[in-house]
Amino acid sequence: METDLSRAAGVRRTSANPASGFDGRPPDGGAAVVLDGHGNVGACTPAAEELLGAPARELCGRPLAELFVGADTWFPPGAGAPAPPVGPVVLRRRGDPAVEVRLEVLPLAGGGGEDGYVVRAVPAAVAAAGEQDEALVRALFGQTEIGLTLHDADLRIVRTNRAAGLELSAGAGFEPVAVPLGEVLVPKDAQIVEAQLERVARTGEPISERLVRVHCRKAPERELVVLMSAMRLEDGEGRCVGVAMTFSDITERHRAQRRSALVNGAEKLLLGSLDIVRVAQGLAGVLVPEYADLAAVDLTEAALVGEEPGDYSLGAPLRRVAVAARLGGWPAELLPAGASLRVRDPRNERVYQRTTVCVPDLSELQAALADDAEARRAVLPDEAASLLLMPLRARGRLLGAAVLWRDGGRPRFDEDDVALGTQVGARAGISLDNARRYAREHRAAEALQRNLLPQEVVRVSAAEATGSYVPAGTAAGVGGTWFDVIPLSSCRVAFVVGDVVGHGVEAAAAMGRLRTAVQTLSDMDLSPEELLTHLDDLVTRMSAAERTGPVAAPGGRQGTFLGSTCLYAVYDPITGVCTIASAGHPPPVLSVPGRTGAEFVEIKPGPPLGVGGLPFEPVESVLEPGTLLAFYTDKLLAHGEDGTEQRMRQLRDQVEAAALEDSSPAETGRTVLRHLVPEPPAHDVALLTARLRALPPEATATWEFPASPEAVSRAREAVSAQLTAWQLDDLAFSTELIVSELVTNSIRYAGGPVGVRLIRDKTLICEVSDPSQTQPRLRRALLTDEGGRGLFLVAQVSQRWGSRYTRHGKTIWTEQALTPD
């Protein structure tokens, strides 16, 4: 709320000076009194009446000393020149608090020989603010760091300070001259600045530290970078009388910032892509347009393929892998991206030296390459005026070079640019070498991964299966994914798919060890849940050994085996039963012929391998011949931006469409991957598709005999008759021997009943089952032993033999070639 003092002085409150309550400008006329020669008040202004707190009739005739504390110590000031300002002094006011004011005393010469005085009272706060304003104006016009220009309503420069560097005096005199901006700046830049000042004058909205690039008429070739601020100037009525502009020349600072940004941009390449071509393209993008008008990155062929580069020699092949142009497209006279080039002439070897090369004037190089069209296409565009070549080296090896050009409209390359180019080239060389080494690791990991995987197409009696492997686009995602199709005894087949945690060569090696372990355990004919239990224990022990062994990972961290998922399924083509168990792996997709819609098999996944402590639960299903199964890794569901549920629907739809078209497993796999993985994924993806088959009923024969001695002869007779029906009489003797020995052992050591089954497939399979859980053991009998030769004889007359546990005991099986040797 305004005080009486401020209202009396006619001063407005503004936000510019909230502490004092005044804007620093005394009111027109002010609070003034006229004194006679004796110091008595003769007249006063209305503002004085309000300030003094009394009407004029009470003030006139009173001595001034009565109105101020201690006035007799300084008044009257004496005759002569005007007295300096007095104060602050304390003003007496009736019933109101005392107020400090400053007085200005001016002597008057009376016409009748009597002198007088005019005393003007200004509140001390107003006077102090005015002095501060004057000091600020003097400082702004006197300092030499920040430029200041005052523009009139027509935006002409009417006043400047020293930092502005403009002479506006009119020749010999000192009257300022209004100068248009177009006489100071080049026309294009003057129009840009005037447009901004005109907006400030029109709207009253100031601008603060706006970066502009200008060229002065005195030196149009030199670009100045300026931070400009501007505000509107108004008179007492609020009308615009001009614009005040301040500016700072930050050309050198801006240039240093640009150079720092260029170096930092090259460093950021180290944190970006690890694809060597993308790194080269990023380098070209960093260099243009801030540093050059044209840029090309040429790399050695060895670096491109990830090999260790050797010493560079003349004639070694280079490839232009990245280009960038400031204006328009890449010049037609220069080699484009993807082109090969060679430096054969020793005179031109300077273009690929060990240090940064600067060629400020290309006339000499143009003359030297006048007859070498290939070299001209490599380094001489038509519009170029100067050239800079930055070798890209790392660990003492040359990976390539970045060639930069500037046209005649920009300053030529100089020694400062050489120093900057050396820094950028060093950082870019490290980035490119990291990408090269990464590419080599990527190839090694992918090669190891592919070599450890089985053949893509597997055809067995139980199924036709095709495995598809899509490597990751980078080495960070390669390794750990595997699939397998393992033939088992009695025409059964096992399908395996898994994914090791981690990536790279270590994960690929771990995958190979797991795949070998699965094949070894499957040879024991274990059930899926039992096999996963053994595999889980194996992974746990291997992981513990790596953490605590003599070659444990640094810091006690986990080593190669961080865990793995795995799904193991066994299909029997005779019974049609498929048993599946999962260790943290997603379920397969199932499509039954003649049935609309594909579906995911309902399984109960156990914990991933390496966790331990929980059982794995098997799920049995009876599947029809022709059923299509699709096994996959979970990375297939995580690829792309779609959610897991949407990806599962897409996978199910693709498998369903392939089943309706009766596509082969290979065609199905290609179709699914083409739709779901259209580009290189971030992680490896594996897909195993299998079309199930069934053995015809006439290909098998089954008998069951009681545990009695005559069962041996009956079994021989039944087998012999079946072989005759199959026209396999050549195998009658050996098969009768096998059946006789195995049935005899079952009756002697296991009791009954004893099951016998013949399977005619690519081989003749003979199975003998009994209720005993004791596995048979092959041994060499002594000459004095009465028995112990049965399994030895069985092994001699068969190609392969083995045994497996069943729910009700065990089964011993043998295989014989259909055409005996």
Automatic annotation (TrEMBL):
Limits of the PPM-type phosphatase domain: 463-692
Pfam families with a match to the protein in the record: GAF, HATPase_c_2, PAS_4, SpoIIE
Region (Disordered): 1-30
InterPro entries: Bact_Sigma-Reg (IPR052016), GAF (IPR003018), GAF-like_dom_sf (IPR029016), HATPase_C_sf (IPR036890), HATPase_dom (IPR003594), PAS (IPR000014), PAS-like_dom_sf (IPR035965), PAS_4 (IPR013656)
Record-annotated GAF domain positions: 254-442
Annotated Gene3D superfamilies: 3.30.450.40, Histidine kinase-like ATPase, C-terminal domain, PAS domain, PPM-type phosphatase domain
Alphabetic keyword roster: Hydrolase
GO terms, molecular function: phosphatase activity
Protein name: PAS domain-containing protein
Organism listed in the record: Streptomyces nodosus
Species lineage: Bacteria, Bacillati, Actinomycetota, Actinomycetes, Kitasatosporales
